[in-house]
UniProtKB/TrEMBL annotation:
Protein name: TonB-dependent receptor
Keywords noted in UniProt: Cell outer membrane, Membrane, Receptor, Signal
Organism: Spongiivirga citrea
Signal peptide segment: 1-22
GO cellular component, one term: cell outer membrane
InterPro entries found in the cross-reference section: Beta-barrel_TonB_sf (IPR036942)
UniProt KW Iron keyword: no
Domain of life: Bacteria
Subcellular locations according to the entry: Cell outer membrane
Main location: membrane
Length: 574
């Protein structure tokens, strides 16, 4: 205890003495001056610049280290909810349902009936079968016609298509039955009622064909097509035509040459001549080669080609060689707005009874069939767009043809044992050289995808060598068309056809006789349709809206105002 007290006393004494000394030192502090110096701030100029880069021999120093980054995903709760945006765009119309089978049927005045049937069936993965059936008929009833003027036309076609690994082939065939009457007897007539009643003006024309085509994907041999057509009528006429066209294609440097070999055989027979009771036979063979080279250079497209044919007349046992140009060119002068084009082309045209009948159903079964030497058809023109939705085309041409066919009326012939075509109510064919100058223009306007309009007109100037004029050829033709989709259900359209005046004569031609002038005519047609559903449509067609009994051929007035209404049905057959 005494020891602790001693220690405390010693600590107290030391503390007291220190405090006294501190007070004494505090009294001795003098005044001093303090100099403040600015801190040193180094600059780049103060640094010592290395004049030479050091050389490092340590390989580990220069080695680039590979750094691997890893992301450690950790779900984090969030209350953020993004708002859904609304896209702005074109509103697409619903896609129209397409069916593989279509059936349409309509009835109209003049006891008219019309039928259209079409189906496209997939036989298997690589094969398709298409079938088409068309029928158009009328029981007649044209004013001031003294003979039966009914007609019907039925056409059936089939096509089978198959795709193989390296080629595709198709086989097709068809049958057509046409019935027309030679009702074009001039009125008034000197024939008595019993004589008129005894006339049978009916002509049945029957035609059928078989054909096929093979196309290859690779190789020089590209395709071959074959067509055989047989035609006949009620008067023991017959015609056979066989056409075969193999095509080859081979490259030369950077270009491609295409060549087509042609063999066209035509034979036919008529039971008699119009003025003599002797049969008429014809037999022609056309063989040759046509081809060309296509050059594409920026805005220029040039087709350089020619055709060489040998035409042989087996009846007269003579033949000749024909050479024709096949040259076309186009130049895009101002993008799609101005395109210049032109060409010179020719061909040996194999005229035939079938084609004559399709052009004029009132020809007699006593025709003179002969080929036409179309030496050349030269033309130049310009086409393009005036604006984004207005297109145009203008063209001028000059053509020369030898032995061009002209339809001309047959004279009355009482020696034909009262055949239905022997009363001046049928047409024959004569041939002459023809030179034609033509100018044509076309305008098209597409206001929208729902409204389109177009108009076209052509002016012709003819020159013949032996006959007085180009019989039954118009000097002016014009067409105008409009199609309008009003809404998804309603649609309508129309067409106007104008044909200028023509002149006709009688065979044999009497140079002193005045030709008959057929007046120009305007044929106005329209249609209106309503879509009931995806499968059903109803329609209405009006032809010859102006109710003109014009004559396309002399003494053959057409039906007046024609009305036809019907329904169409689309469906899947399977």
């Amino acid at each position: 205890m005494i020891k602790i007290i001693k220690i405390n006393l010693l600590f107290l004494a030391l503390t007291t003495s220190s405090f006294v000394l501190a007070q004494e030192e505090e009294k001795k502090i003098d005044t001093e001056v303090i100099n403040v110096v600015k801190p040193y701030t180094p600059t780049v100029s103060d640094a010592f610049k290395i004049k030479k880069n050091p050389t490092l021999n340590d390989s580990t120093t220069t080695r680039r280290k590979i750094v691997n980054y890893r992301i450690f995903s950790q779900p984090v709760a969030s209350t953020f909810t993004p708002a859904k945006g609304k896209a702005e765009g074109i509103q697409k119309a619903p896609r129209e349902k397409l069916y593989d089978t279509y059936l349409g049927f309509g009835l109209g005045n003049f006891n008219t009936a019309k039928l259209d049937f079409y189906t496209a069936q997939e036989v298997d993965r690589d094969s398709d079968l298409n079938i088409s059936l068309k029928h158009h008929s009328s029981q007649g009833g044209i004013d001031n016609v003294i003979l039966d003027d009914k007609f019907f036309d039925t056409d059936l076609e089939l096509k089978f298509i198959r795709s193989e690994r390296d080629f595709k082939w198709e086989a097709n065939g068809g049958f057509q039955h046409q019935l027309y009457n030679w009702y074009g007897i001039a009125t008034p007539t000197a024939l008595s009622d019993p004589e008129i009643a005894a006339i049978d003006p009916t002509q049945n024309f029957i035609s059928g064909y078989l054909g096929g085509e093979v196309t290859f994907e690779d190789g020089i041999f590209r395709s071959i097509d074959l067509n055989v057509r047989q035609s006949g009528d009620s008067f023991k006429s017959s015609e056979t035509r066989v056409i075969i066209n193999p095509t080859i294609q081979f490259p030369i440097e950077n270009e491609t040459i295409t060549a087509t070999f042609t063999a066209d055989y035509l034979t036919g027979k008529f039971d008699r001549d119009y003025f003599n009771n002797v049969s008429l036979s014809y037999q022609y063979l056309k063989t040759g080669l046509s081809g060309g080279l296509t050059l594409l250079r920026d805005d220029v497209t040039l087709n350089l080609g020619a055709a060489v044919y040998y035409g042989y007349n087996a009846e007269s046992k003579d033949g000749d060689v024909f050479i024709y140009p096949r040259v076309t060119a186009s130049y895009r002068l101002v993008d799609e707005y101005v395109i210049l084009f032109g060409g010179v082309e020719g061909d040996l045209i194999q005229n035939n009874y079938y084609q004559f009948y399709q052009d004029n159903q009132f020809v007699s079964p006593t025709l003179n069939v002969s080929p036409t030497d179309a030496k050349y058809d030269a033309y130049v023109g310009m086409k393009g767009k005036i604006s984004a939705n207005v297109g145009y085309s203008v063209q001028g041409g000059y053509s020369v043809k030898n032995d061009h066919p002209f339809f001309i009326s047959n004279a009355s012939n009482n020696t034909l044992n009262d055949q239905g075509y022997s009363y001046g109510n049928s047409f024959g064919v004569i041939y002459d050289n023809l030179q034609t100058i033509s100018f044509s223009g076309k305008l098209s306007y597409e206001a929208s995808s729902d409204l389109t309009l177009s108009a076209r007109g052509t002016i012709y100037d003819y020159k013949t060598d032996n006959i007085d004029m180009a019989w039954n050829l118009p000097e002016v033709t014009a067409t105008a068309m409009v199609d309008y989709q009003i809404n998804k259900n309603w649609y309508l359209g129309g067409s106007v056809f104008y044909t200028g005046a023509r002149q006709n004569s009688v065979l044999p031609v009497d140079p002193t006789a005045e030709p008959t002038v057929l007046k120009s005519f305007l044929d106005i047609n329209s249609y209106l349709g309503y879509r009931i559903s995806e499968k059903f449509n109803i329609f209405m067609n009006i032809n010859n809206l102006a109710n003109q009994n014009y004559q396309k051929w002399e003494n053959y007035p057409v039906q007046g105002f024609q009305f036809l209404a019907g329904i169409t049905y689309g469906f899947d057959l399977k």
